[in-house]
Amino acid sequence: MSEVYAARRTRLRERCNAGGSAAALVSRPANVRYLAGAAPHGAVLLLGRTEDLLVCSGPPDDRPTQGRPDEALPVRTLPGPGGDPAVTATGLAADQGAESLATEDHHLTVVRHRAMCSVAPALRLTDLGQAVEQLRVVKDEEEISCLRIGAEIADQALGELLESILVGRTERHLALELERRLVDHGADGPAFPTSVGTGPNSGRRGHRPTDRRVEEGDFLSVCLGATYRGYRCEIGRTFVIGTSPADWQIELYDLVFSAQRAGREALAPGAACRDVDRAARQALDSAGYAENLPALTGHGVGLEIDEDPQLAPAAMGKLDACVPVTVEPGVHLPGRGGVRIDDTLVVRPEADGGPELLTITTKELLAL
Amino acid sequence: MSEVYAARRTRLRERCNAGGSAAALVSRPANVRYLAGAAPHGAVLLLGRTEDLLVCSGPPDDRPTQGRPDEALPVRTLPGPGGDPAVTATGLAADQGAESLATEDHHLTVVRHRAMCSVAPALRLTDLGQAVEQLRVVKDEEEISCLRIGAEIADQALGELLESILVGRTERHLALELERRLVDHGADGPAFPTSVGTGPNSGRRGHRPTDRRVEEGDFLSVCLGATYRGYRCEIGRTFVIGTSPADWQIELYDLVFSAQRAGREALAPGAACRDVDRAARQALDSAGYAENLPALTGHGVGLEIDEDPQLAPAAMGKLDACVPVTVEPGVHLPGRGGVRIDDTLVVRPEADGGPELLTITTKELLAL
Lengths: 368, 368
Description:
The structure is a homodimer of 368-residue chains. Chain A has nine helices and 19 strands.
């Protein structure tokens, strides 16, 4: 694995040098993990002029779920509590003779940035921008394999829940049980707070579970994901409770299902992100639900659950092969509930069979 | 409750005006909740020259566990996605005729701060510092009552776990079960990730649960807390598994217990924070464990689990009445394990009976 991290750092260094900076300081935890193999709490990565260093505030956490630091990367640990690794790393960059240092200004606070300026007044701090986030968009097969295993775990946890009695249980209990099952099946933990919505809460994106109990006739929507070796996937499904769904439930479900399928089918290398969004949104728009739609219909996933690209009406850019994204249109009708269907897929060229579906739980409307 | 929030905002406004700023922008979520009753995702609070406003990025979350926004406070919601409430609020401050705006530079990123500067170039941005955090240190009886209920919930969850079979279960399962019980008993959720450490992992501060199973003869240390109406408490206990603790276990336990008692007994209005730390640390130091001790032996709790004051060797300042703190010395011996004992208490004057213990689970060494 060491070569993988070294190659990623080389790519970042080339971008920095092209931007006029001999050195860079990476502080955002997911970016540190991407480039160094692990992101111990508070650690920063210095891409120095003469040497790269992982600067940590304390001894590294040795749990495997936190990643293993690249063994080829020297580690510097602050001597006592209270210090800021970013400030220490800035001093080290200056000691290495760097004249400018590119920093993650979308992550550093104003106070930290000021302390970094003070420790090395001759060093010019520039903005690295989202350079590492951009490198992270296209995944290698090792990363995709982690996402695939995470998706299998999420499918298993969801499948087991569906075999149990649901009526009378609260959203909060169902969510906790799903999270326990994720861990049982080998996840590092949930990829994000599990969402369970019943009745009027169903179909709301990011709904946080309440004490409402599942009732006959409800829509039940569930959104969960596993973290596996740091990689986070997402699956969302909507079910009906009881033997006979109402007509409006069947109609709404079919509509969202066809929208989600259109979104999935639009995934291809070279497709504009906004066109994928439009594909998923169109049927819902023309059925009169324009007001009830989420701001985005999908997003990238990886070391964070919400990464680039965004699938949204104003999104710029095109998809590449090996980019994992969610496709998750939904409609929520205030007071009544709604439907969301959410898959994680990897963009693949037509020649390789088209988009690879990672979350394989059925999307038929199940009556439970 | 509205008067409580208004009074808190008045106190902050007085501090800002004394510091030369007519307006302030509060962005740190716990600070927004303290002053506005709730902190919807991304929301900021503007203390304006002529009007206070809660600026939100979307419709407020109406779950009671997220707090209720002060009804006397006008709410401004951004029209579409992608905007930054902090930038909008900065523009509103300028519109209200403010010449300077105090901001939370320890929370704002460099990029957000730059965007705020750009939207109102004539407005001078100054650093509010930790003014709101300082207001939050001394709690009112309503806040203490939330902490007290949270501590009861944590005591209940822990008590139930102790009645179950422990040998053979993993740290991760025990932690998940504790978190489920917290929610069962009415917590909003865990106050922080529940820590369960067995055998060589026992006694490590902030240990994250692994797949290690509880074995006969182990120390088992558990640290958990409930969030209740936003307020977070903490309890930690160490047990031995099996009928007869080894001599070294009894000795180490007695030592940490006496250190923790010394810390608790040192809590009084006017006591220096470093003296409380020293009281808890002294016995452990002189027993030769100076190298095995954590950087702090306690800290404030409230809307966040780790607040001011810090009980540490270099801590400045003194305790006041009605300040809730943890007292949590511990010793961890690499490869063998250790002991931590952790209570949440409220500093009270001698005349009121001295420190009020919120977490009442026994601190006798239980053999389970």
